[in-house]
Amino acid sequence: MEAVRASAAWVASRSSHVKVDLSEIEKAVDKIQGNVPKIEWDFEGIHYFDNGPLTVQYLFVLDALNFCFWPDKDLTYDNLASGLKLALENDKTALDADRLQSYTGPQLRQLLNWPRSLPIEEERVRLLHEVGLELERSFGGQAANLVKAAGNSAASLIELITRHFPGFRDHSLYKGHQVFLYKRAQIFVADLWGAFKGGNYGEFNDINSITIFADYIVPAVLRDLGILKYESNLSCSIDSNSEIVPGSEEEVEIRACSVHAVEKMRELINKKFGKQNTKMTDLLNH
Predict the structure, then answer these.
(1) pLDDT for residue 203
(2) Residue 283 reports pLDDT greater than 60
(3) Comparing C-alpha atoms, which of 74, 173, 62 is closest to residue 119?
(4) How many CB atoms within 10 Å of residue 163?
(5) Average pLDDT, the chain
(6) Average pLDDT over residues 142-168
(7) pLDDT > 70: percent of the chain
(8) What are 20's strand-pairing partners?
(9) For residue 99, how many C-alpha atoms fall within 13 Å in the half-sphere facing its CB?
(10) Is the pLDDT of residue 265 over 50?
(11) How far is CA 159 from CA 129, 140, 170, 210, in A?
């Protein structure tokens, strides 16, 4: 995903609210000595998996909805993953393309077994409709056909997703420059790779092409390691749990600098220890 890497580097070179500390990257890399522990997918047991196309459908819907759990302090990704899993176990047609197009907010809550309105519920419903409609129109209703169309290429799959599904086009305008991050499209690729253990629907000959996923967890880890440094006003906002406005300079810088920092870590691990490391993204995204 060269567009993501180039975007992240461009932002990092101009960032005023967030800085990447290269000396701390070197310390972190020396500390782990290039050894990043392997993280097994679904070690929590919260995901649906049947080793077939329904798992692909499940993961695509899950990753379409995987954003913004704030400000509901009780709602987490685990609720989303386990809720959709239970829905499928009770009704194998729950995520069929035609049904995705018809869900309302209350029906989505019922599907997830969630007792109150979801954060940005209208947008989540809109994304379900978008996914169902485009899967039906272009891929025979099945996300598995979308994956097959990519020909075992992670980069091609991300390109297909972002071309056909606008809700996955994770990009922002920063200082007049378009920045691409493609968080959820890349998560879908990584979920397939992890769930199917690099085979079947998860076989990609260029899995190293994806980057870390620019969400809210990775920056927290990097900040704790001293790799990301925030200017004082941004630090105060984060420490007081104030909202960082989506698309703002601060938000774009946090996300882009996180990607750039981990790319620098990966480059340094390869240089020092001769390892092409995909597990770095696994570690930081769990």
Answers:
(1) 98
(2) no
(3) 74
(4) 11
(5) 93
(6) 98
(7) 95
(8) 228
(9) 14
(10) yes
(11) 20, 19, 12, 12
Distance CA 271, CA 139 (A): 42
For the chain, where are the alpha helices, taking DSSP H only? 2-14, 22-32, 53-65, 77-90, 97-100, 105-112, 121-138, 143-149, 154-164, 183-195, 217-224, 232-239, 249-273, 279-284
Q: One-letter amino acid identity for 205?
A: N
The CA distances from residue 232 to 20, 229, 250, in Å, are 15, 9, 12
Cβ-Cβ contacts under 8 Å for 170 (sequence gap 6 or more): 180, 181, 182, 183, 184, 185, 214
Contacting residues for 13 by C-beta, under 8 A, at least 6 apart: none
Question: Tell me, what DSSP letter sits at residue 42?
Answer: T
Domains of the chain, residue spans: 2-274
Tokens 């960082």 map to which residue? 244
**Quick check: helix, strand or coil at residue 134?**
helix
DSSP assignment of 52-71 equals SHHHHHHHHHHHHH-S--TT
Instruction: Scan for tokens 């169902």, then name that residue.
Output: 132
The pTM (predicted TM-score) of the whole model is: 0.92
The residues that are catalytic are 215
Question: Which residues, in sequence order, are CB contacts of 161 under 8 Å at separation 6+?
Answer: 146, 168, 185, 188
What pLDDT digit, counting tens, does each position of 248-262 carry? 999 999 999 999 999
- The pLDDT of residue 277: 52
Long-range contacts of range 158-166, CB-CB < 8 Å, 24 or more positions apart?
158/1, 158/182, 158/185, 158/186, 158/189, 158/210, 161/185, 161/188, 164/134, 164/138, 165/64, 165/130, 165/131, 165/134, 166/130
| Mean pLDDT value across residues 94-112 | 97
pLDDT tier at 97, thresholds 50, 70, 90? very high
Instruction: Work out the number of other CB atoms within 10 angstroms of the CB of residue 45.
Output: 9
Residue corresponding to tokens 């947008």: 123
Taking every pair of C-alpha atoms in the chain, what is the biggest distance, in angstroms? 53
